[in-house]
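Example record

The entry below shows one chain as it appears in the dataset: sequence first, then structure tokens.
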Amino acid sequence: PVPICPMQENVLQRVLQLPVVSSTCETLQRKYSSTKESHPLMASVCEVYERGVQGAGALAMWGMEPVVRRLEPQCEFAVANNLACRGLDHLEEKIPALQYPVDK
């Protein structure tokens, strides 16, 4: 029988929701967008880069799909995610600055 894993929070989503991380990502996105808008040559280079990243991401997802399907029912991802969430709990407790945006 295959063990059934309960639905749990995703550590990557938690990290991305930390104020310090989300504010950093927003700042970087604004800088990236303004650079593309103000420098036409840079915009064309960025577009080529973006297409490459999208292609690489799609290829990585395609390559990982069989591995994910094989491991998912066995709860290895759930165990790793749970350990990572506990580690994140510890970091959030020990480093209160993670709860503030970068500018603070």
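Notes for this example: The two ends are 51 Å apart (CA to CA). The longest helix spans residues 40-71.
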